[in-house]
Amino acid sequence: MTTAKVALVTAAAGAGIGAAVARQLAQDGMDVVITDAHERRAAEFAEQLGQECGTSFAAYALDVTDFDRVGEVVNDVVARKGRLDVLVNNAGWSKIAPLAEMDRETWLRCIDVDLNGTFNCMRHALPQMIEQHSGAIVNISSIAAWETSKEHGAAYSAAKSGVHALTRVAAAENGKHGIRVNAVAPGLIYNDFLRKIYPDDFFSGYIENKSLLERVGEPQDIANIVSFLVSERAGYITGEVYGVSGGVCPGG
Ligand SMILES: NC(=O)c1ccc[n+]([C@@H]2O[C@H](COP(=O)([O-])OP(=O)(O)OC[C@H]3O[C@@H](n4cnc5c(N)ncnc54)[C@H](O)[C@@H]3O)[C@@H](O)[C@H]2O)c1
Question: What pTM did the predictor assign?
Answer without folding.
Answer: 0.98
